[in-house]
């Protein structure tokens, strides 16, 4: 089986995985779901393949990519792990945690992946499709979120198609589970909040530092303040919307859409980007979002919302 040229989308299954692996081993790119968001994957050891990711996303090339590997053993072949990093890997892999670690000499990762840095961001994903693609290709896979640079991260295959256009092959396995990009940790500092919360990290490390809150000065590559922007203006912490605003509600704040009527932040995280996509496509000129409490994964939701509101 190969990807049909008209609409190159295949549902998850053994044949789709073989087709996707063939594209990757041929130096191409494939959109593939992870438990966080859909990623745009290429062989991390092949610089031309990685260049295709940057080209498809229109991404500034100083923004380094996350490398996905099947397990900790594969991660140890690419980077140095200290005791903290090992503890985090044992606690949260496979899962939505990315560790920034010193790159090993001779790891074979294309320098375009790390944007020339001497560190590499690594993650062992849990999703069956990404795991199957890693097994079938036998390669570390570089994969940023599968959206045009600066756009909203995709949590369903139609988001990918709308953002990246008709040419990109998509392995479709429905909606992603967490709905927010992985937590990124460097040492004991959270560079990007995500599904693995500060409290979960502190349980393992004893203490963690919060990175700068978005919108912030760019301290690490890719921490562009405006990074998850819808096309329309967005107002935060809104309980009463104006007539021309599409209100994304939460809990008792109802709105045109609601992230979680029961006020569950995990459900809200899973639905956030889908809701932003819907809001952007609506007939209202502006967007508004209800207040989301800051605890746990609420931290990551509010991080993405602050970025989305920065234009
Ligand atoms: O959940 C996720 O992490 C998704 C899925 C596909 O795995 N991927 C994702 O990738 O969100 P991306 O490229 O959209 O975001 C990667 C972030 C960027 O902000 C980038 O700057 C940062 O990771 N990053 C990558 N390598 C880094 C490094 N060596 N040092 C600091 N930050 C790094
Ligand atoms: Mg992204």
Automatic annotation (TrEMBL):
The keyword Hydrolase is annotated on this UniProt entry: no
Catalysed reaction equations from the record: L-threonine + hydrogencarbonate + ATP = L-threonylcarbamoyladenylate + diphosphate + H2O
A GO molecular-function annotation: tRNA binding
GO cellular component, one term: cytoplasm
SUPFAM superfamilies according to UniProt: YrdC/RibB (SSF55821)
Subcellular location: Cytoplasm
Record-listed ATP binding positions: 59, 63, 119, 145, 153, 192, 228
GO biological process: regulation of translational fidelity; tRNA processing
PROSITE patterns per UniProt: YRDC
Entry annotated with the keyword Cytoplasm: yes
Source organism superkingdom: Bacteria
InterPro entries: DHBP_synth_RibB-like_a/b_dom (IPR017945), Sua5-like_dom (IPR006070), Sua5/YwlC_C (IPR038385), Sua5_C (IPR005145), T(6)A37_SUA5 (IPR010923), TC-AMP_synthase_SUA5 (IPR050156)
Binding site for L-threonine: 36, 68, 123, 143, 182
Keywords: ATP-binding, Cytoplasm, Nucleotide-binding, Nucleotidyltransferase, Transferase, tRNA processing
The enzyme's E.C. designation: 2.7.7.87
Sections of the chain in a coiled coil: none
Domain YrdC-like: 14-196
Function, as annotated: Required for the formation of a threonylcarbamoyl group on adenosine at position 37 (t(6)A37) in tRNAs that read codons beginning with adenine.
Family: Belongs to the SUA5 family.
Protein name: Threonylcarbamoyl-AMP synthase
Biological source species: Sphingomonas yabuuchiae
């Amino acid at each position: 089986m190969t990807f049909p040229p008209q609409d190159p989308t295949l549902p998850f299954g053994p044949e789709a995985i073989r087709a996707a692996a063939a594209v990757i081993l041929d130096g191409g790119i494939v959109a593939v779901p992870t438990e966080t968001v859909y990623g745009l994957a290429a062989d991390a050891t092949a610089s031309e393949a990685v260049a295709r990711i940057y080209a498809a996303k229109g991404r500034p090339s100083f923004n380094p990519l996350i490398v996905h590997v099947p397990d900790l053993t594969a991660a140890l072949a690419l980077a140095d792990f200290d005791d903290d990093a090992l503890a985090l890997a044992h606690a949260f892999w496979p899962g939505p945690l990315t560790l920034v670690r010193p790159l090993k000499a001779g790891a074979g990762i294309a320098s375009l992946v790390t944007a020339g840095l001497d560190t590499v961001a690594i993650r062992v994903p849990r999703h069956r499709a990404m795991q199957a693609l890693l097994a079938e290709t036998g390669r570390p896979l570089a994969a940023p979120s599968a959206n045009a640079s600066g756009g909203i991260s995709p949590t369903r295959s139609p988001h990918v198609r709308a953002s990246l256009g008709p040419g990109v092959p998509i392995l479709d396995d429905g909606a992603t589970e967490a709905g927010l990009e992985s937590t990124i940790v460097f040492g004991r500092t959270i560079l990007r909040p995500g599904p693995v919360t500060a409290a979960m990290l502190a349980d393992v490390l004893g203490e963690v530092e919060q990175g700068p809150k978005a919108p912030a000065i760019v301290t690490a590559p890719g921490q562009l303040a405006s990074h998850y922007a819808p096309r329309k203006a967005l107002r935060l912490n809104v309980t009463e919307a104006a007539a021309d605003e599409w209100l994304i509600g939460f809990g008792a704040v109802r709105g045109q859409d609601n992230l979680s009527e029961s006020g569950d932040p995990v459900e809200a995280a899973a639905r956030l980007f889908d809701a932003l996509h819907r809001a952007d496509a609506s007939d209202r000129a502006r967007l508004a979002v209800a207040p989301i409490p800051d605890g746990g994964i609420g931290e990551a939701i509010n991080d993405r919302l602050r970025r989305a509101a920065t234009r």
